[in-house]
Write a structure and sequence with these properties.
The complex is a heterodimer of chains A (141) and B (360). Chain A has four helices and four strands. Chain A is of the alpha/beta class and 141 residues long. Chain A has one domain: Rossmann fold, CATH 3.40.50. In chain B, the strands form two sheets. A five-stranded mixed beta sheet of chain B has the order 2-1-3-4-8, sandwiched between helices. In chain B, strands 5-6-7 form a three-stranded antiparallel beta sheet, with no helix packed on it. In chain B, helix 4 links the parallel strand 3 and strand 4. Helices cover 34% and strands 12% of the residues of chain B. By secondary structure, chain B is an alpha/beta fold. In chain B, helix 10 crosses helix 12. The chains are: A alpha/beta (141), B alpha/beta (360). Chains A and B meet through helix 2, helix 3, strand 4 and helix 4 of A and helix 7, helix 8, helix 10, helix 12 and strand 9 of B.
Chain lengths: 141, 360
């Protein structure tokens, strides 16, 4: 019996003002990218807390992507600047306790960067694919 | 010979008694002896008779900053939610503070938990507190009935044994790697200021773990937290943990399951440490409170190291500067940002990869 090929599942937190619109543009412009992202729209990358990232990993995500506006372009002036500090520390802490750093990704995508969004989606998917299914923080419900 | 701790005890009693009887403070927060050897109890003195019970020794491992907001609240005149602010200055509270505790009080000032003019801080330069668990481990099951403290050793005695333990060998890990033993803010200094310690590589324990391979680090993490019974003593001992509803108690969404399943325990420890990022002063109260001997301090120490390396900030050193995570700089490091430049450009990469697999 042929088993179904494993595809990574990546939870993507995209900010409403830039990255979500960037993802939309990628679709409208018909850029191809892997169907591995599960997109969650958030008001700002600064809204994404460590709780959410870990909840995604616990619930079976193989990877997490957080994307917001480029520094300086935040709709709320500085939300992404606070996020940058917080997410940098979270990434470092997860790496410290032995979670592969490639599972947690942060990017800046503006509303006009449909092509770049597709490239980020591809890069993140390939990195997670190379690691295989998540094992460490997944909870069997 | 009188030990330095008993000298400090006398000074604390005298100062606390003076402050209380003159009405300068309504309450004084310190320690009284606990019911077992090598334990102390936090204690709120409200009269000069109470003040005579206060002690200072090497076992004051709990962080008094943790109790300070509640004690401040307790001396305020009672008022309902809609009642106006009482007129005139509110009563003040005296408190003991070593280096790390005073830095926690600075964090509390920055976070509007306490007002500087309502606390009278008796500063003490810390010589490091003794880890009770280390002493008990050395005794190997023999029960210590009496522990006498000298400047550089502990005289432990029990049924049919007497043992002298060099003090520095049983001092807590966080105190051994401490560089700021002196209080940052204080009103009355008790004893001499010692100055910053220079020689300690304070992140040695963290660097040791960083040098391991990822799988070894995960194994270390799992091993470290495997005995956790999720009593949350570490959270309750921490002056930084004061959310009205802690994330572990949230039920919708339930961030952390209530079971002691390893994943839930792991997420609890990751998030507990993470919530202290940029605020933790490495006082070690969490580790001292842990009944299972988990070294959860290492997780917060790692964050302390990152904050210092990436943002050049240490928690609680200056009430005027904002906390590292409530500010930012336009040129904060961001080499971890994914740009998509490393992604394969062609969309036909699926075929390419399956070809590679068949070759190998």
């Amino acid at each position: 019996m042929e088993t179904k090929k494993w595809e990574p599942r990546i939870v993507a937190f995209l900010c409403n003002w830039c990255s979500y619109a960037g993802a939309d543009l990628a679709g409208v412009s018909r850029y191809q990218y892997p169907p591995s992202l599960r997109i969650i729209r958030v008001p700002c990358s600064g809204r994404v807390s460590a709780n959410m990232v870990l909840d995604a990993l616990k619930s079976g995500a193989d990877g997490v992507l957080v994307s917001g506006c480029h520094p300086g372009d935040c709709h709320y002036i500085s939300g992404n600047m606070y996020a940058r500090r917080r997410l940098a520390l979270l990434k470092s802490l997860l790496e410290f306790i032995g979670i592969e750093p490639e599972r947690f990704n942060v990017s800046w995508i503006s509303a006009s960067e449909g092509k770049q969004f597709a490239e980020v989606a591809r890069e993140v998917t390939e990195k997670v694919r190379a690691l295989g299914p998540a094992r460490h923080l997944v909870k069997d419900f | 010979m009188e030990s330095s701790s008993s000298k400090i005890t006398d000074e604390i009693r005298a100062e606390a008694s003076r402050l209380l009887s003159s009405g300068e403070v309504a309450a004084f927060l310190g320690f009284v002896p606990g019911s077992l050897p090598m334990t102390v109890r936090p204690f709120v003195a409200r009269s000069s008779e109470d003040a005579a019970r206060l002690v200072w020794n090497s076992f004051c491992v709990m962080n008094l900053a943790n109790y300070l907001p509640e004690v401040l609240k307790s001396v305020e005149p009672p008022r309902g939610p809609g009642d106006p602010e009482p007129e005139g200055p509110l009563p003040r509270v005296g408190v003991l503070a070593t280096g790390c505790w005073s830095r926690n009080m600075v964090v509390q000032i920055q976070e509007n938990r306490i007002q500087r003019d309502r606390v009278v801080i008796l500063g003490i330069s810390s010589r490091g507190m003794v880890d009770r668990k280390k002493v008990l481990a050395r005794l190997g099951g023999r029960e210590a009935l009496k522990v006498e403290e000298q400047d550089h050793s502990l005289l432990v005695s029990g049924r049919a044994f007497n043992e002298e333990i060099p003090r520095w060998e049983v001092v807590r890990d966080n105190c051994r790697s401490c560089v700021h033993p002196d209080p940052v803010i204080w009103d009355i200094m008790i004893g001499e200021r010692a100055g910053d310690r220079q020689n300690a590589n304070r992140f040695a324990q963290v660097e040791e773990i960083e040098s391991l391979a990822p799988e070894e680090r995960w194994a270390w993490f799992q091993e470290e937290i495997s005995s956790c019974i999720r009593c949350y003593a570490c959270r309750n001992a921490c002056p930084l943990c004061y959310c009205p509803t802690c994330f572990v108690d949230d039920s919708r969404p339930q961030w952390v399951g209530k079971s002691i399943e390893p994943v839930d325990t792991a997420i609890f420890h990751i998030l507990r440490a993470y919530h202290c990022a940029g605020r933790c002063t490495d006082c070690g109260a969490c580790e001292s409170a842990c009944p299972m001997g988990i070294r959860m301090r290492l997780f917060t120490k790692k964050l302390e190291k990152d904050v210092l390396e990436m943002y050049g900030a240490e928690a609680g050193m200056d009430p005027e500067t904002p906390l590292p995570l409530s500010t930012f700089s336009p040129d904060d490091p961001q080499d971890f940002i994914v740009t998509g430049q490393e992604s394969p450009k062609s969309t036909g990469d699926e075929a390419g990869r399956s070809g590679e697999v068949s070759q190998s």
